[in-house]
């Protein structure tokens, strides 16, 4: 990867490691999943569209609205509320670990939709290892608790959207400025979520922690993240861009344990290790050239 690609990769690994903490704070404080999703999306849309207008790139959206809408539904409108709803029943740490299955789903979808991302040989083995990790995680830590099973199912369903969306972006929106494309996608998602958000709006003003969480989710984890993510996908491809999910759960688990006092069961630890190993193999199974040349010098 290029230096710019590595910089985007590092930024996304951190930026998308923190939203699970803020989502958990907001939903635990009584903010509904749909209202939370609408609020963060509306904030992100307002910021990005303003930046796109100022840069004079909104004209690039002409002829792309059908795919903007498709991307908005698959990447934002469905996954955001699903994840927030799932976090009503499971921890932020478990959520991040389940989202780490996204590269595995990309490999499955690629069998039909993207020859460049197809998993064969060692990558196919990684696919099996990764899904074994999901089974271990759900079978040991979640099985027997109906609410947690529901939460895990909602999060895995959201993961399917996260896996499909980059393929739409790569094929249909690659030539559109990131501020315009992502701003328009967030605008579409805002419109689709507006009515259900109004019906589930909090009866009382959200707590300060909840409001702060929504603002961070909107500005950093949505607006900034989607622009950087588009650049990363176009730079390295969907499968390798989603390698950020190797590091996201590590960040999320650390925050969940340190700030929310969450604990990890044996199934979560084993599942995380298997999912990360499987994802690594299913997206390449080897270090990028620049890293292979790097040598560690003892202090």
Give the C-alpha Rg.
Answer: 19 Å
Question: Mind describing the biggest β-sheet?
Answer: none
What percentage of the residues does DSSP assign to strands (E)? under 5%
Count of distinct structural domains = 1
Percent helix: over 70%
* Helix/strand order: HHHHHHHHHHHHHHH
Helix count, per DSSP? Answer: 15
The overall strand count is 0
Quote the distance from N terminus to C terminus: 27 Å
Low-confidence stretches: 285-299
**Broad structural category:** mainly alpha
- The outline comes out as globular
Question: How confident overall, as mean pLDDT?
Answer: 82
Keywords:
transmembrane; globular; about 0% strand; disordered C terminus
Can you offer a commentary on this structure?
Residues 285-299 have low confidence and may be disordered. The chain is globular. The chain has helices at 3-15, 19-28, 33-55, 65-77, 79-86, 92-99, 102-113, 122-142, 146-172, 178-199, 208-236, 238-241, 248-259, 266-283, 289-292. Helix 2 (19-28) crosses helix 6. With 299 residues, it is an all-alpha fold. It has one domain. It is built from 15 helices and no strands. It is found in: Membrane. This is Threonine/homoserine efflux transporter RhtA.
């Amino acid at each position: 990867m290029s230096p710019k690609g590595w910089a985007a990769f590092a930024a996304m690994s951190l930026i998308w490691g923190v939203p699970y903490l803020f989502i958990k704070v907001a939903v635990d404080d009584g903010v509904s999943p749909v209202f939370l999703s609408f609020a963060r999306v509306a904030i992100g849309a307002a910021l990005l569209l303003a930046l796109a207008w100022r840069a004079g790139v909104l004209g690039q959206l002409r002829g792309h609205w059908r795919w903007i809408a498709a991307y908005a539904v698959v990447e934002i409108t469905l996954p955001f509320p699903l994840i927030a709803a799932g976090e009503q029943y499971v921890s932020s740490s478990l959520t991040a670990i389940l989202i780490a299955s996204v590269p595995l789903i990309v490999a499955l979808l690629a069998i039909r939709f993207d020859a460049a991302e197809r998993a064969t040989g060692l990558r196919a083995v990684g696919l099996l290892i990764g899904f074994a990790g999901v089974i271990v995680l759900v079978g040991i830590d979640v099985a027997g608790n109906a609410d947690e099973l529901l939460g895990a199912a909602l999060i895995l369903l959201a993961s399917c959207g996260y896996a499909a969306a980059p393929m739409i972006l790569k094929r249909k929106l690659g030539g559109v400025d990131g501020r315009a494309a992502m701003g328009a996608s967030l605008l579409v998602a805002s419109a689709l979520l507006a009515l259900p958000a109004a019906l589930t709006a909090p009866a009382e003003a959200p707590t300060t922690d909840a409001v702060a969480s929504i603002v961070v989710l909107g500005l950093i984890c949505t607006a900034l993240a989607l622009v950087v993510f588009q650049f990363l996908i176009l730079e390295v491809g969907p499968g390798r861009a989603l390698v950020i999910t190797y590091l996201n759960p590590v960040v999320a688990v650390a925050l969940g344990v340190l700030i929310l006092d969450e604990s990890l069961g044996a199934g979560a630890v084993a599942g995380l290790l298997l999912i990360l190993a499987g994802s690594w193999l299913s997206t390449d199974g080897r270090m990028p050239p620049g890293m292979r040349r790097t040598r560690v010098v003892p202090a």
